[in-house]
Design brief:
7 strands, alpha+beta, globular
Length: about 190
């Protein structure tokens, strides 16, 4: 048994655990949610988002809103979630997001990701591609909470802005670099 397995108290050797985790993460898209479930979860995520002071200012100018209600990160291998793109309050497409990761996460964690397209040209460029990678196809500016626990608005003019939050509120000091959004056929 490797020293890493002992430190993590894994019942199997670390290399076996890595293979099993990779296989599990590789099967996540096979358990795709229905469109009605995704839409219900998107509605809930948007209600939660609007509870942050300043969030409405961003939603009011958004040309499109891409919502991933639950992006799961577990084990070694990355993150995965499914969501919907809404334009004028209506779902126009469904997407998955995936991020490769080499960090170890002992328990599954979920976060909510909302990406707002504040300019029509940014939304059009996004919709024209089947797969869009942050940092390659475009940049997403992540917005943090300011000192007053409100969503700051200094990035309101940026073409694509993102928000990540969990059970305890907006998360900060995160990056979406390398995240990929892929259109789903539903």
């Amino acid at each position: 048994m490797s020293p890493f397995s002992k430190a993590l108290r894994l019942p199997v050797p670390l290399p076996v655990f890595i293979v099993l985790a990779a296989l599990l993460l590789g099967t996540l898209p096979a358990h795709a949610a229905s469109t009605s479930k995704i839409n219900r979860e998107v509605d809930k995520a948007l209600v939660r988002f609007q509870q942050f002071d300043g969030a409405k200012a961003y939603l009011d100018i958004a040309q499109g809103v891409l919502v991933f209600p639950k992006v799961y990160k577990a084990g070694i291998g990355g993150e995965y979630g499914e969501g919907a793109l809404r334009v004028d309050g209506k779902t126009v497409d469904y997407y998955s997001t995936a991020v490769a990761s080499s960090s170890f996460q002992p328990r599954a964690q979920a976060k909510t990701l909302i990406v707002l397209f504040t300019r029509e040209d940014a939304l059009s460029q996004f919709r024209a591609s089947e797969s869009w990678k942050v940092g390659v196809d475009g940049a997403v500016v992540l917005v943090d909470l300011d000192a007053g626990k409100a969503v700051g608005t200094p990035h309101i003019q940026d073409p694509v802005v993102g928000f990540v939050f969990g059970q305890k509120g907006l998360m900060y000091k995160l990056t979406l670099e390398g995240a990929q959004f892929t259109r789903l056929r539903k």
